[in-house]
Amino acid sequence: MKTLPSLHPDHARTLDTAGLRENFHLPGLFEEGRIHLAYSHEDRLILLGAVPLGEPLALPGDVAKVTGTNFMLERREMGVINIGAPGTVTVDGTSHALDHREALYIGAGARDVSFASDDPARPARFYANSAPAHRALPVTRITREEASPVTLGDRATNNERTIYRFLHPDVVETCQLLMGLTELGQGSNWNTFPPHLHDRRCESYLYFGMEPEAVVFHMMGQPDETRHIVMCNEEVVISPPWSIHCGCGTGSYAFIWCMAGENQTFEDMDMIAPAGLA
């Protein structure tokens, strides 16, 4: 498990490309037949990728060494979205089927969690985020139709997109996790633009659904000191509370966003005018 420390913005602005990638970029979460995790000190997020083949993949017991609890989700909640073929997530003996781009919320206290593919030749690809939680809430499956989709942006400004809010107060009750999926419209390449930041919570982005030769330029940094990280398919970037976050791709892509912090008000953003960026 890779650990990503919190950085002061004055430190971050001194980093070169390799330093930015080492501290904010997560490649390699998805490997066939394996489960990989990473731990971020930003809001204590744990990020997970699992690609089960013939046998289910279970949450490893040694993760408790990082969380300081008896098992990983003893005092944590988790959101899971399947970006692959159909599969199941089994929580304490109960199986929950997840089709492509469907989600599952797992409340605090779940002891045994495992991931399986319906067909090993066409594996599921599970992406999960976990954050500390103060109470237990029911396990809930969320379909795309239930995810309160909303279309924003405009084709004229190359940022038309549909947002699916899977873990959102209007859809399912959670302690602090917010999680969803954004699909760009045909011909649009900007996401979350104009950019914003929210000092009250961090955010993680998983970019996926990209062709092998495509990349996304993920914008980060303080508004007056912007940086970028070049992202390939199925890679994650962590955006600290002091950082803007938006991106522009060279081809079609989608991304999963997750937030954890002091509130669950999705619209709580500090908008940044593009002309104010430097």
SSE inventory with pairings:
Elements: E1 2-4, H1 9-12, H2 17-24, E2 25-26, E3 35-40, E4 46-50, E5 57-58, H3 64-67, E6 76-82, E7 87-91, E8 94-98, E9 103-106, E10 113-117, E11 126-132, E12 140-142, E13 150-152, E14 161-167, E15 178-184, E16 190-197, E17 201-208, E18 216-222, E19 225-231, E20 235-239, E21 245-249, E22 254-261, E23 270-271
Parallel strand pairs: 1-3
Antiparallel strand pairs: 2-20, 3-4, 4-11, 5-10, 6-9, 6-11, 7-8, 7-10, 9-12, 13-14, 14-15, 15-22, 16-21, 16-23, 17-20, 17-22, 18-19, 18-21
Largest sheet: 7 strands, mixed
Q: What is the domain tally? A: 1
What is the succession of H and E elements? EHHEEEEHEEEEEEEEEEEEEEEEEE
Give the name of the CATH superfamily: Jelly Rolls
In whole angstroms, how far apart are the ends? 35 Å
Major sheet strand order: 1-3-4-11-6-9-12
| CATH top level class name | Mainly Beta
Could you explain the architecture of this structure?
- The protein has 278 residues and is mainly beta.
- It has a single domain, classed as Jelly Rolls, CATH 2.60.120.10.
- Helix content is 6%, strand content 44%.
- The protein is built from three helices and 23 strands.
- It has helices spanning 9-12, 17-24, 64-67, and strands spanning 2-4, 25-26, 35-40, 46-50, 57-58, 76-82, 87-91, 94-98, 103-106, 113-117, 126-132, 140-142, 150-152, 161-167, 178-184, 190-197, 201-208, 216-222, 225-231, 235-239, 245-249, 254-261, 270-271.
- Strands 1-3-4-11-6-9-12 form a seven-stranded mixed sheet, with helices on one face. A seven-stranded antiparallel sheet has the order 2-20-17-22-15-14-13. It has a five-stranded antiparallel sheet with strand order 19-18-21-16-23.
- It is globular and about 55 Å long.
- The two termini are 35 Å apart.
- The model has no long low-confidence stretch (mean pLDDT 93).
